[in-house]
Amino acid sequence: MTAATEGRPSPGTGPAAGPLASARGLTKRYGVRHALAGIDLDVGPGVTGLLGRNGAGKTTLLRCLATDLDPGGGRLTVLGESPETSAGRTRIRRGIGHLPQNPVLYPHFTAFSLVDYIAVLKELGGRRARHDEVRRVLDAVGLYDRRHSRVRRLSGGMRQRLALACALLGEPRLLLLDEPTIGLDPEQRIRFRDLVSEFTRDRGAVLSTHQIEDVGALCSRVLVLDAGRLVFDGSPDELTGHARGRVWSAARRPRDAATAWRGPDGRYRVLTPEAADPPADAGEAHPVEPTLEDGYLLFTAERG
Ligand SMILES: Nc1ncnc2c1ncn2[C@@H]1O[C@H](COP(=O)(O)OP(=O)(O)OP(=O)(O)O)[C@@H](O)[C@H]1O
């Protein structure tokens, strides 16, 4: 079933020139712990992938961009606006869509009423245009047919898609997505990729994820955070290239590999610290083409 699309609100407006978001020396501390330790960053159109270990600072960065958290220091602009003033924060919130990690959804609401409630909070147009917009985003995430279902009766993946529908309301210029594909089945993940890819033809998205395949499939640029610092900023191909000549299929697990794991064929995928010959204790070994995951694993392994 297709939702009505007429009368939908126009994309969030605001200063058009310049990056969609820009940070200089951005810091955020929780007590003595630096969650962000001086981030310099410009976010442009397209999908920017944000990778990093658990606790690296990805959610903190997204929450600062979403004006949900006050950074402790540095300069930040989002959609050309500073979040330091109340008026600036309001304009940013109207122009972005934020899918937080572990979104809280009211269980007794129906899917439609929940998205409509968020649309009211976002002050999206009159009732008719707002309802058209609610139907549009529910349709976009494949939940239009479940619009009358109570949130508590939806599966985990459906709830995640419902939260994504809320983030898409009002055609924001910048989408901030914190682990959006958690719990999605493979079909819905592809649908999600297509949706975000179409969406970012003329807008931007920052996608924090541990699903490296999503980064390879969607992102023109990838950032790696490590202990609150930006340690890599480049294309997925460049990150993959980091592992070139350092990935082996080996008969045995060598002692000094950066990373090694046993595959279903009983052989070991071995990532070596240096581009050199395979480790002598790996037994029979031959080089294999690196993946984005190899590049990321080697890059983070080098940082201890
Ligand atoms: N509310 C909080 N109070 C105290 N410390 C916090 C808080 N939120 C995050 N932290 C700390 O800040 C650091 C960065 O956390 P953050 O959630 O941004 O990491 P992340 O990269 O998103 O991790 P993950 O991949 O596990 O979601 C961690 O050391 C974390 O323990």
From TrEMBL:
Keyword entries, A-Z: ATP-binding, Nucleotide-binding, Transport
One GO MF term attached to the UniProt entry: ATP binding
Gene3D superfamilies (UniProt xref): P-loop containing nucleotide triphosphate hydrolases
Pfam family for this entry, one: ABC_tran
The keyword ATP-binding appears for this protein: yes
ABC transporter domain sequence ranges: 21-252
SMART domains: AAA
Positions of region (Disordered): 1-21
PROSITE patterns assigned to the protein according to its UniProt record, in alphabetical order: ABC_TRANSPORTER_1 (PS00211), ABC_TRANSPORTER_2 (PS50893)
Similarity remark: Belongs to the ABC transporter superfamily.
Protein name from the UniProt record: ATP-binding cassette domain-containing protein
